[in-house]
Amino acid sequence: AANYNVGLGVGVFADLTSGDNNIAIGLNTAGNTTTGAGNIAIGTNALLTNISGSSNVGIGAYALNLNTANNNTAVGHQAMTANTTGSYSVAFGYQALDASVSANHNTAVGYQALTATTAGSNTAVGGNALGANTTGASSVAVGYNSLGVNTAGGSNTAVGTLALDANTTASNNTAVGASALTANTTGDRGVAVGKD
User: Fold this and answer.
1) Alpha helices per DSSP H over the chain
2) What is the pairing mode between strands 123-125 and 107-109?
């Protein structure tokens, strides 16, 4: 039997059989959870299809909507909404990490930060930081639109508003400062410190 659960809303815990210590508030929130434990879901369809995933937090409409994995935190409308098997990720903001399906160890903070990624081990802080990234892994972007159009470049570090903002496929670059390496698109192993 399921124990120590708190649910409020239509369709909440509709399929719950043995999952313990869950909290769900909102329409269909955690509706398909059967054995998942230690989850918190607040918002319409948050953690809806989570069946056995545990230790997740989904706050916001459609946050972690398709999740079946463990140890994720998503706060914001559609944050990590497509995640199914990816674990150990954190998303804060509207559509942050919303396209990630199976990537692990991502951190996205900001409006549409890492919104398109399918790769793992990225950190994006700022609106649209690493926003177009799809397959680039192990990059760090801090600042509005830093690495904003990067699609496949990996192991880049961009700190500052618009740092490496035109970079698409280049890897192993370091840009620190507002608009640092802003014109770089495909050049690898560049270093720039300072504005522009």
Assistant:
1) none
2) parallel
For 133-153, the DSSP string reads -SS--S-EEESTTTTTT-SS-
Closest CA to 165 of 175, 194, 108: 175
Tens of pLDDT, residue by residue over 69-83, are: 999 999 999 999 999
Torsion of Cα atoms, 125 then 129 then 134 then 137, to 10°? -50
3-state secondary structure 83-103: CCCCCCCEEECCCCCCCCCCC
Say what the pTM is: 0.96
Per-residue tokens: 149: 């159009």
**d(C-alpha 76, C-alpha 137), whole Å:** 23
